[in-house]
Amino acid sequence: MKVLFLCTDNYTRSIIAEFICKDYFRMNHISDVQVASAGIRANSDINKYSDLHFKVMNDMNIDTSEFKRTQFDYEAFLKYDFIIGMSELHKEFVKNEYNKDIYLFNELYKEQNTAINIGAPDREDFEDKMRELIQYFIDAIPEVMSNLKHIHPLGITPSMNREKED
Question: Where does the pLDDT of residue 106 fall: very low under 50, low under 70, confident under 90, or very high at 90 and above?
Answer without folding.
Answer: very high
